[in-house]
Design goal:
Elements: H1 6-18, E1 34-39, E2 45-50, E3 56-62, E4 66-71, E5 77-82, E6 88-93, E7 99-104, E8 109-117, E9 123-130, E10 135-142, E11 148-154, E12 160-165, E13 172-176, E14 198-203, E15 206-212, E16 220-227, E17 233-239, E18 249-252, E19 259-260, H2 265-270, E20 277-280, E21 286-291, E22 296-301, E23 307-312, E24 316-322, E25 325-330, E26 334-339, E27 342-347, E28 351-352, E29 357-358
Antiparallel strand pairs: 1-2, 1-28, 1-29, 2-3, 4-5, 5-6, 6-7, 8-9, 9-10, 10-11, 12-13, 13-14, 14-15, 16-17, 17-18, 18-19, 20-21, 21-22, 22-23, 24-25, 25-26, 26-27
């Protein structure tokens, strides 16, 4: 499927090590448009680079099941996070397929499966649980010095899951899901009656703003994020309450109140209280969300806040803005694209994991 051969990766890696070629770029590994973790039919795990035509450009081994990844902004290097709660992440040289570094969470911490780079790629930020304190942390790693851990910051809440960087600045936005967990209790949610999810904006270790849901929605865990071209932050939620919920998708911008996207009661119910992933179009006008539990993809107008379209797709979860449309992936191996130029569907042998990560 257009994947780079092992021999070519070794050849390029050898030339680079010998100093005979310039620093590689993502073009040297097939110019992937996005990354995704996956399971192969034999039960092994891989990180894949996927082109805009939905062809798999490379598949590199992972030591365990992946959740999401962070793509270095300049060089063909990816940080693959173990499925939460994980205590390690691996840095993969996508030219050679080799592990460049392993990130081990400090004692008393675990990762939530997401990370983001600074604009110049020198720093990596990871969402973590300080489970004895019941508080979220952001780990800071020096990507220029072998991913040495150099600091950690407060995440501005409890249970930080996704983390993104706003365009054109070094401000991070964190989805603090509000749910407290502890390894001694497995994945039991310890504080549902009192949970307080929020979005927190962090600059150089300081929380500069938080945005919370209205009180009657405090059990709506903010989980996944997508950032638009003007700094708009679209977020998907997972409902921890009893009975129905009014909305599972929201939009926020620094200095403004949260706006919730709206659909009919039946439209919200189809998502089964669970948004698995979210994306916002390159022009910021459309938000796409998935629910693997409901087997549904929904599209919202970011300006009006109204549901505009939906479709069914079994075990759909990954979603990504691509060109003038969106790509989605499923646990049954499907990759699909829908945009102004038409539609593409590719069936693969990979069981795609939760997220598609832009390169």
């Amino acid at each position: 499927m257009g994947a780079m051969s092992t021999g070519r990766r070794r050849f390029l890696g050898g030339l680079l090590a010998a100093g005979f070629m310039p620093m590689p770029t993502w073009a040297d590994v097939g110019h992937p448009a996005f990354l995704s973790a996956a399971a192969k039919p034999d039960g092994s795990y891989v990180l894949c680079g996927i082109g805009a035509d939905l062809s798999v450009r490379f598949a590199l081994p992972l030591p365990a099941r992946g959740h999401a990844a962070a793509a270095h902004p300049h060089r063909p290097e990816a940080v693959a996070f173990a499925r939460r709660p994980g205590t390690f992440a691996v840095v993969i040289d996508c030219v050679t397929g080799q592990q460049k570094a392993v990130l081990d969470a400090p004692a008393g911490r675990h990762f939530y499966g997401h990370g983001a780079f600074s604009s110049d790629g020198s720093l990596l930020y990871t969402t973590e649980n300080d489970y004895e304190a019941g508080r979220g942390r952001i780990g800071v790693w020096d990507a220029a010095q072998g991913y040495e851990r150099i600091s950690e910051w407060d995440s501005g809440g409890v249970g930080p899951h996704d983390i993104k960087r706003l365009p054109g600045r070094e401000t991070l936005v964190v989805a603090n899901g509000g749910i407290d967990t502890h390894p001694d209790s497995g994945r039991t949610k310890l504080n549902i009656p009192t949970m307080q999810p929020n979005l927190a904006y962090v600059e150089n270790g300081h929380v500069i703003e938080t945005a919370a849901l209205r009180p009657d929605m405090h059990r709506n865990s903010i989980r996944h994020l997508a950032v638009g071209p003007g700094g708009e932050v679209a977020f998907g939620m997972q409902w921890q309450g009893d009975g129905p919920v009014d909305a599972l998708v929201g939009l926020h911008q620094l200095g403004a109140p949260i706006r919730l996207m709206s659909g009919s009661t039946d439209d919200v119910r189809r998502m089964d209280g669970y948004i698995g992933s979210i994306a916002i179009a390159a022009d910021g006008r459309t938000i796409a969300v998935t629910s693997p539990r409901g087997g549904v993809v929904q599209y919202f107008d970011a300006i009006t806040g109204q549901l505009t379209d939906s479709g069914t797709l079994e075990d759909v979860c990954g979603v990504l803005a691509l060109g003038d449309g969106f790509a989605v992936s499923t646990g049954f191996g499907a990759l699909q694209y829908r945009g102004g130029g038409g539609a593409i569907r590719v069936q693969t042998d990979f069981a795609w994991d939760n997220h598609l990560v832009s390169v």
